[in-house]
Amino acid sequence: MPGRKRAAAPPRPIAPGDVVAAFANVLGEWTAAQIIDLTADDETASVLELDWSGPEPSSVADLGDVAPLRLTHHAWGGAFSYCDFEWVLPRSYKVIGTMPLLLDEPCRSYSSGWRLGDQLARQRHWDGGGRDDPPDPQSATYKGPELNELLDEPADPHTDVRTLNVQGIEALDCDRLVRRFPNLTGLALRGDLGLLSSAASLNELRAMQRLLIVDLYGMSKADRLLPQRVPALESLFLHGIPAEYATSMRSTWRLEIPNGTYVHIRGARKPDWVAENRDNPLRDWDGREHISGPRYMKAVAQYKTTRRAILAVLGDAGDAADDRPGRLTEIGREYGEAFNRLDGRSPFIETVEREDLFDALVHIVREAEAVHGPDLAWAQDSLISGVEAVRDW
């Protein structure tokens, strides 16, 4: 949570020089990596993957004469497979010993989720002549409506699928999902203020190691996951979820952090927030760490002002209709200048926020197209032209 006290050391003991091992499904074997550094301020571990896989090792000696994994696939150009991860060592990983550091330089990349073995599998696939990512028959990706159509069809359980990624969820029954995909180890569910029902059924996924839920609602404390039901869980990422569910999940799973479960829970929302923000394309700014509450409120107020002005111009069928492109360009300029002022001397509008601001304009045009017809590309172009002429962000 924002403002919480930082830990002085990783919850599972690890130190620079330690060698950790884990089973990699993509390889069908164990693989290993070395801890190069720990950063308490960021709670990260700098991890160097080793060019090794084989049977489960009991000590560093079982690895033989190992070297760091160098990546030549795609655009890596011979760089080491070296990355900062959250410093919670996943519960399925183990420390098998220590050795002198194989690298002495700071890490400049970050990723959430350790997933040792993925890069080694990609490199071996590349070395074997493959130029696409290696196929993963155990992984499946669907859009929300597409998955619901699949679940409507009678079929045997898909026991071979281990990783499921579902995006654009409007409504999803977790009980039906679990019955169709009973052997999942990884599940990612993303919505847009969508409805997730029967979420307690996720407790039936006993082998689940990673769960991500973003912008989905309908869950209560009765739906919380229980450690005794999903004992393998090692990554829990929740963002944009009901406040009651967030509180219950946090209190339940923070006790499992020392056992190797990474817990990230943000964006807990109460029912009135969901109702008020359903049509607010900047709602994800609420609670974002580098955006203050007053700045968020001013941004939403400016969006609403701009929305009213755009819809008024696009609804004008009178004498001024021929000048609509020019009027929209001016609205775009005013929008860009307003956010120049809001960004001010301590800028907060970064790449993601910049995309959000342009997407908000597109959202307004799409809203107008639902009323006036789908041929308003010129309106979007006029708005963006105005913004681009003045923006500093």
Class based on secondary structure composition and strand pairing: alpha/beta
Question: Which sheet architecture does the biggest sheet show?
Answer: 6 strands, parallel
Identify the CATH class of the largest domain. Alpha Beta
What is the CATH topology of the largest domain? Answer: Leucine-rich repeat, LRR (right-handed beta-alpha superhelix)
The share of residues in helices is 25-40%
> Could you say what the CATH architecture of the largest domain is?
Alpha-Beta Horseshoe
* Beta-strand residue percentage: 15-25%
Q: What's the tally of helices?
A: 9
Question: What is the typical, i.e. mean, pLDDT?
Answer: 95
Assembly type of the chains comes to: single chain
Envelope shape = globular
Q: Domains counted in the coordinates: how many?
A: 3
Report how far the terminal alpha carbons are from each other. Answer: 28 Å
H/E element order: EEEEEEEHEHEHEEEHEHHHHH
CA radius of gyration:
25 Å
Total beta-strand segments: 13
Largest sheet strand order = 8-9-10-11-12-13
Low-confidence stretches: none
